[in-house]
Write a structure and sequence with these properties.
The protein has helices at 2-80, 87-168, 173-185, 208-216, 237-242; strands at residues 191-195, 198-199, 231-233. The chain is mostly helical. 12% of the residues are buried. It binds zinc ion (ZN).
């Protein structure tokens, strides 16, 4: 069983290496996905601020129209001043001119406050555009890196699977099945190291008699952890021979 264990150790190492590559790929895909979500959010925010700026521009246009009307009314009234016949008419006309001027002034104040708001929106729009640009560049860089790595990763995994295939020939099918089953259920680890009577897969104590048998390594059957059911091995060959 020692030789089977040694082969399983190598198989386990290969499986973990493959898993590390797959997780690296997954991790990078996740970063890209998150960035894509962020980009969508930024684009939505840009569209929102654009709509707000558009609404402000419309309001400013309407106010400009009001200002123009008030100016026109005031200058028309001022021309009429020359043809005034009595005090009553003068009073009425003066009142109208004042009203037109007052309304014009109010409109101008309103316009300047809207223009300030528009400036703010435009500044916000520009800063969000810059942010979008930098995020898009980042996304391009990350996607490029991912694509560039994929070929190498696939090649590495294929090579490792080939080595694993070779190794599995030396392991009895029922042992391999057991190993694969546990591995699939226990975070990719089917074979756990035991150190000082502690299973390094689940970090619980294993019974002393199991530990002794493991160290002897001469038994017909492989030992399993009573807690996590992983197949067990002890590491040091020198230590094994010393027992
Ligand atoms: Zn365990």
């Amino acid at each position: 069983m020692i030789s089977t264990l040694r082969v399983l150790e190598r198989i386990q190492r290969i499986d973990l290496e493959i898993r590390a590559i797959e997780e690296e790929e997954k991790r990078r895909c996740k970063v890209i996905e998150e960035l894509e979500t962020e980009l969508k959010g930024t684009r939505d925010a840009i569209a929102a601020v654009e709509a707000e700026a558009g609404a402000l521009k419309t309001q400013i246009k309407e106010i400009d129209e009001k200002i123009r009307e008030s100016s026109e009314r005031a200058s028309k009234d001022e021309k009429r001043l020359n043809s005034i016949k009595n005090d009553r008419e003068l009073n009425a006309l003066t009142k109208e001119i004042n009203g037109a001027n007052k309304s014009k002034k109010q409109c101008e104040q309103e316009k300047s406050s809207l223009a300030a708001k528009l400036d703010e929106k435009e500044a916000l729009f520009n800063s969000r555009q810059d942010l979008l640009k930098s995020k898009e560049e980042e996304l391009g860089r990350l996607s490029g890196e991912l694509e560039a790595n994929r070929g190498g990763w696939k090649e590495a995994i294929d090579g490792k699977l080939k080595s694993k295939d070779e190794l599995t020939k030396a392991v009895a099918p029922e042992i391999l099945r057991k190993y694969e089953l546990i591995r699939s259920r226990r975070s990719g680890v089917g074979l756990a190291l035991v150190k000082d009577e502690i299973c390094q897969g689940c970090f619980t104590h294993i019974p002393p008699q199991v530990y002794i048998m493991l160290k002897r390594g001469t038994d017909e059957e492989l030992q399993s952890c009573p807690h996590c059911h992983r197949l067990l091995h002890v590491e040091d060959k020198g230590q094994l021979e010393a027992v």
